[in-house]
Amino acid sequence: MVDMITVDALNMDSKQLNRKIKELVSQGQKEINIINVLGQRFIGNGIQDNSLKITIHGVAGNDLGMFMEGVSIELFGNAQDGVGNTLNGGTISVHGNAGDVVGYAARGGKIFIEKNVGYRVGIHMKEFENNVPVIVVGGSAGSFLGEYMAGGILVILNINSPKIMKADAIGTGMHGGKIYIRGDVDINNIGKEVVILDIDDNDYKILKNILKEFGNKFNFNAVELLKDKFIKLKAISHRPYGNLYAY
Amino acid sequence: MSVLDRLLPEFFVKVDKELCIKCGQCVMNCGFSALLQDKNKNVKPVHEKCVACQRCMYVCPTKAIQVSKFPGTQKHNDYWKPEYINNIKKQANSGGILLTAAGNDKQYPIIFDRLLLDACQVTNPSIDPLREPMETISYLGEKPVNIFIEFKDNKYILKNNLKPNVKLNSPIIFAAMSYGAISLNAHKALARAAKECGILMNTGEGGLHKDLYEYADNIIVQVASGRFGVTPEYLKRSAAIEIKIGQGAKPGIGGHLPGYKVDDEISFTRMIPKGTDALSPAPHHDIYSIEDLAQLIASLKEATDYSKPVGVKIAAVHNVAAIASGVARADADYIVIDGFRGGTGAAPKMIRDHIGIPIELAIAAVDDRLRKEKIRNKVSIVAAGGIRHAADMAKALALGADFVTIGTAALIAIGCTLCQKCYTGNCSWGIATQRPDLVSRLDPDEASKKLVNLIKGWSLELKEIMGALGINAIESLVGNRERLRALELSSETLEVLGVKPAGR
Amino acid sequence: MIPALEHIPSGCAAAGIMNQSGVCISGDAILDMMSVMHSRSNGLGGGFAAYGIYPEIPNYYCLHIMFDTESAKREVDSLIEENFITEREEKIPTRTIEEIKDPPLLWRYFVLPKPDKLIAKDMESDDFVVKLVMLINTRIPGSYVNSSGKNMGVFKGVGYPEDIGRFFMLEKYNAYIWTAHGRFPTNTPGWWAGAHPFSILDWTVVHNGEISSYGINKRFLETYGYKCVLLTDTEVIAYTFDLLVRKHGLPLDIACNVVAAKFWKDIELMSEEEKKLHTALRMTYGNLLLNGPFAIIVATNNYMMGLNDRIKLRPLVYGKKGDFSYLASEESAIRKVESNLEDVYSLIAGEPLKVEVKKDVCA
Fold first, then answer.
1. Mutation for C interface: B476, B478, B500, most C CBs within 10 A
2. N or C, which terminus of chain C has less Cβ within 10 Å?
3. Three-class SS string for C31-72?
4. Which residues of A touch C344 (CB under 8 A)?
């Protein structure tokens, strides 16, 4: 058994690549390096393994690390849509951009995206007791950020992006969890269920820990960003639709 | 009194002696004097006067009153219904026209109930109206055909002169119900609710009471054949003007407000002597042909400096498509089409129940005809007459209407129980009456809240329906027949509606 | 080629390549892009649009027509004979491959409207061609016009896009704009005329998504003489742009504001001038709002444009390297043909991304 094994994904389709990965995992392989990835989907899907590390070079296809638990995935390149979809646990780090719907229905684990993400990021994230998913984005995010959020922590750092976020409908339908934004949002661009607050000492502590880890992943001093203005978005009520129905 | 002069009561009022606490609430509340209290405070019903307005049942604290059909069975007859038999006896007594109110209550096929809406699955996502944008804003008035733009200073500038349009938050308008037919408190409630919801109400043909002047931006003023209360001020104090040519409940005949409903205030507002019958003639006596209508429209626009939309209300009759085309070409900015289920304060029963066509067919025919003639943009189409719930509304829009109006539904929200006795002026609910003791029962603030709730509930339901259809803007629903399917309708009806049968 | 009875919703993979200086490349690149996105289709439809492929005969309208039967062709032939001057007509060359079964007859005609016909009908050439296309599609059963522009053509049918590409021998054509599409229709059988791109004159559209407003878009367009008979909602997009841009003279980005209208809540916050313009646009062209998720790639002789619906429910990525611009449903498709991109990003909801050809290449 070698320490790290390399898989060349060139000319493999999604099924072939994933079969190869799962074969290696079942053989006890703990470090897998995949090169020449070009759009293959479902990498890491459904794998439960607390000591497995997968490194990917190239453009990862849709639904990277979906339904995953415990695995550590590191992508050198851009990701497409659905990163960490329904993530149970583990860590996904992307040295690049990610597409739409990052961390949809995530309920544990960590997703770190170095640069920008698309629309509906963190949609319907959940949490329960110690299972608190965390998504950190280094650049900017698109509209419907944190839509329908029920739990978890979403952090947008807006490095090299406009400080007042252009995204719209942020936190629409939110009824739990927290969104931290470095910079500001326009009151016309947040969901009616959301309230904007300043960060307090507790938030500061949480952010410090998260940013330390984020900074380590991408080799820069992220904690320094805490000098800048951060805001917190939370749900006004956990029953925003209590008055909606006629019984 | 000869036995031939007698009529059997329609309803039977039962007072449960054990439950009755003799509070007398029912007696005080009955507008029809159908309940009395004797010297021992026992409640005694006068069955022949009861109209089943149910006010007593609603107010009784112990549910001691029951109003039901008068017992005593007639030999069953599906053809000679009890109503027809009674009507003949009534006419044998009076020699008059049978009067009624509210909308057509007869059994005809209900097309709305044979139409089903689509929903998106798999190939197209439904949209969540609570979290994603869902637009129901609609504009009433004539729309441009072309857009002319110039590029100046790095910006696009619109060169068109737009015709006047009124913006509504939802595609719902409160139907025209005159002050006279209904009470001032009811009118106030409608005006307040319209303002709060960002929609419109309609004065009907009775003029505008000064207490409603502050709501002018949410009021359509009607110009009917009687021209009641039509002053220059009246025209200016409005969001839009509507020429009433006809209404669904009584196509071809004019309005009728019995003299006993014309009190001081009505006399002042309508500018007719107190106690006279307010008759609106059937045609406007300056409109005997389509070019006359064009003239009246032009005249109204000139009088108001072309500052607001001028619309026309017609009843849905056989050649409604051709009429609508003429009206659009006469420069009307919107057309209200009132189907045969439309309500009224007073109408002859024979007219109400047997004349006119269903609104579903009328809307489809008019929308098709205007598109075919390439003049659909010239008018907003407003569907009226028996919109019972938000699904009826959605279906009416899908068939081709830009807006719907609600009359009966609005009144039900503020108490109406459809006893069909509006023309008597004894409405126990304080709605279709001018009797001060009855009118005072209807609190305009409370009633306005009920109306606001109704509009709110229907608007949310409309958004849910749109969401299910994968649509987030109302303009994608209007005229989108593709999202309807029909169940058990004849192929000719399907052709008129432009709707496919369910399964295809 | 049996027309499906009912309207077929659209899938699923779209791509485009353009060289801004008009340098032409073979179809290999676009086929490569599509091969990466293979799993987005289900083999029931694939197609391509290519611009600059007939440089030797650039001034004639090129009608790519498919026929079910010889008799359908004969009818169309006499219609063309009557109305057009024909410079050249020939079978579209194809390669027999196992994966493409039962192809219809595929022909192309290089034509110009007869001048006396134009005078008699008092029409411009473009309008005349549009009218004849609608006529062929509606009146002559078993015949469908796939494209009708100058120095461009649409190649499409039932099969995976890569297979359709090989069938039409696209590696032999050279174009400065290529767009492509692979379908995942949910009805079977797929039919040849239902594949994308949809086209009228030199407009082509490939579309990923489904149009929930199709019913009313269609009825509005019918008022202007466009007949939607190809049973695929994408058809309305091609006619919509032809109407708004060519017939009504609206700038392309304004036309995009019609199909992906600004939200009322955003219009409220605009300056008076802008508010007036956007309100007027929605009032006038509300029936042409494209509701439902979409990513479209629209091309003409002069530009390629990508556009997403206003709440971005479909992916569309742009990439650039030198004079080459790329659009695709997935970034990996772009990287397949160009791994070193200068720029790569996703489109923003409701905002068009247009790349223009720098010089006028259709002589």
1. B476
2. C
3. HHHHHHCHHHCCCCCEEEEEECCCCCCCCCEEEEEEECCHHH
4. 78, 97
* Segment B44-59 mean pLDDT: 96
Is the CB of residue C58 less than 8 Å away from at least one CB of chain B? no
pLDDT of residue B126: 86
Residues of C with catalytic function: 12
Sequence-ordered strand ranges (E) for chain A: 5-8, 31-38, 53-59, 72-76, 91-95, 110-113, 134-137, 150-156, 176-182, 194-198, 230-235
Cβ <8 Å between A144 and C311: yes
Distance from CA of A213 to the nearest CA of C (A): 26
Residue ranges in chain A modelled with pLDDT below 70: 1, 240, 242-243, 246-247
Q: What is the pLDDT of residues B107-154, one digit of tens each?
A: 999 999 999 999 988 777 888 888 888 999 999 999 999 999 999 999
3-state DSSP assignment of residue C186: coil
Point out the residue among C39, C312, C331 whose CB comes nearest to the CB of A80. Answer: C331
* pLDDT score for B286: 79
Q: Which of A62, A78, A104 to mutate to test the interface with C (most CBs of C within 10 A)?
A: A78
The two structure tokens encoding residue A84: 């960490």
H-run or E-run covering C136: helix C125-139
CB contact under 8 A, C312 and A97: no
Residue of B nearest to A169 (CA): B132
Chain A residue with CA closest to B464: the answer is: A244
pLDDT in tens, B299-315: 999 999 999 999 999 99
Picking from A144, A173, A246, the nearest residue to B130 by CB comes out as A173
| Pair of tokens at residue B74 | 């007639």
Local structure of A32: helix, strand or coil:
strand
C44 closest CA partner among C143, C130, C157, C141: C157
Q: How far apart are CA C50 and CA C164, in angstroms?
A: 14
Q: What is the 3-state secondary structure (H, E, C) of B238-292?
A: CCEEEEECCCCCCCCCCCEECHHHCCHHHHHHHCCCCCCCEECCCCCCCCCCHHH
> Is residue B504 less than 8 Å (CB to CB) from chain C?
yes
Q: Is the predicted pLDDT of residue B365 greater than 80, yes or no?
A: yes
B386-409 exposure pattern, b = at least 16 Cβ within 10 A, e = fewer: bbeebbbbbbbbbbbbbbbbbbbb
Per residue in C317-343, pLDDT tens?
Answer: 999 999 999 999 999 999 999 999 999
- What tens digit of pLDDT does each residue of B61-73 get? 999 999 999 988 7
Q: Residue A169: list chain B partners with CB under 8 A.
A: 131-133
| From B280-294, B385-399, C151-165, the region with the lowest mean pLDDT | B280-294
pTM: 0.89
Of C269, C344, C349, the CB nearest to A188: C269
Q: Which helix (H) or strand (E) holds C182?
A: strand C177-182
Could you say which residues of chain C have pLDDT below 50? 1-6, 9-10, 188, 362-363
pLDDT at res. C315 = 93
Contact B191, B219 (CB under 8 A): yes
CB burial readout B300-338, b (16+ within 10 A) else e? bbeebeeebbbbbbbbbbeebbebbbbbbbbbbbbbbbb
Question: If you average pLDDT over residues B431-456, what whole number do you get?
Answer: 97
**Ramachandran quadrant class, B198 (left: phi over 0; alpha: psi -120 to 50; beta: rest):** left
Residue among C18, C28, C29, C27 at smallest CA distance from C338: C29
Q: Which residues pair with C150 in a beta bridge?
A: C61
Contact criterion met (CB < 8 Å) for C283 and B504: no
Considering the domain A97-244 in this protein, what is its CATH number?
2.160.20.60
- Choose from B189-193, B204-208, C5-9 the range with maximum mean pLDDT: B189-193
User: What is the per-residue pLDDT for C11?
Assistant: 53
